[in-house]
Amino acid sequence: MQNQRVLSGMRSTGKLHLGHYHGVLKNWLALQHEYECFFFIADWHALTTEYENPKKIQESCTEMAIDWLAVGINPKDARIFVQSQVPEHAELHLLLSMITPLSWLERVPTYKDQQEKLREKDLATYGFLGYPLLQSADILIYKAGHVPVGEDQVCHVELTREVARRFNHLYGREPDFKERAEQAASKMGKKTSKLYHKLRKGYQEQGDTEALAAAQALLADQQNVTLADRERLMGYLEGGSKIILPEPQALLTKASKMPGLDGQKMSKSYGNTISLRDDIDSVAKKVRTMPTDTKRVRRNDPGNPEDCPVWQLHEVYSSEETKAWADQGCRSAGIGCVDCKGPIIEAVQAELAPIQERAKMFEEQPDLVRNILNEGAEAARDEARKTLIEVRQAMGLYR
Ligand code: TRP
Ligand code: SF4
Hints:
This protein is mostly helical. The protein folds into three domains: about 200 residues, HUPs (Rossmann fold, 3-Layer(aba) Sandwich), CATH 3.40.50.620; about 60 residues, no CATH class; about 90 residues, Tyrosyl-Transfer RNA Synthetase. The protein has 17 helices and five strands. Strands 1-2-3 form a three-stranded parallel beta sheet. The longest helix has 30 residues. It is elongated. The structure holds tryptophan and iron/sulfur cluster (SF4).
């Protein structure tokens, strides 16, 4: 059922680091077993800001796919593909652009924020203003029910909901909608139809949202209802039009607790990352040169873990026992910072070892990676085409 469908994307901007792994990818790994997942590499989105370096974007697509596969995103469970291989996203984006007021795009908070942040680039472009709407098309083309995103992207899912609502309102009106919906209801059989009407009444007359949810679940369970009839019945529950593009929900990804090497959030722009494919030696070197509590100038000076970025890594990686050892040793100057960093180095290396082993396997087989992405794109296109056919029909486009 479409509500069980999850869609998310990531801009192709290069190799991924531990922040991506602990924040986004682990979450995807869990979702891929529970939902029908579509994960895509957003190369068009990357172009909106990196249009001067298209070559870099292309290389990043392969690297990103390798990183996803290496952490365990499984093409048997999730469809993974590159956005530009599914041109249907672009057609839907164009069609949605016809009905989207400019003001909706201008007031998306990321629009001004990003322009400010990326001052050195000229982002007064049509593509940059429109990218949240491209994101809406990404989501709606699969009729995704859930969209895992970080806090900063929730506003884009909100925009998507508004655009979907407007689309359904404008084009979901069939002249004989009510009759068709009633007909569809009777096709479900007497008993189910009666229950459906009762629940619909409960929602429409008493605002009973539980009745609405129950009715939606009832429809989701019907095996012998056509897609079009299901949409009519869903739409009829809430009002007078057919729901062609269902409104998605944001599935908020908790901000990653993964600190960077300097205690700030791990991010490429801060230069404080450990990449998933950093070799063992450079992991050791990066951790060894991390700053520590500045009050520990000499080995004999006691320190305070709360003022130390290394401690934040203990919080992520260490057992209670190791943490107690580090905390006590730091406060009493019983251990040195080099000692304290030892278990961290080992833990990160142990976490990365299997990932790197798989990454190596995929690096050595570029054809395999390409095939996985091609197959993912084909599977995604099958779904995307279905939605586009309905959208074109609803808008009355010439066929
Ligand atoms: N805009 C998102 C980001 O910058 C990436 C993205 C593009 C996306 N399309 C999407 C995320 C659709 C979720 C759903 O991170
Ligand atoms: Fe930081 Fe550990 Fe050194 Fe204390 S002992 S300052 S927690 S690295």
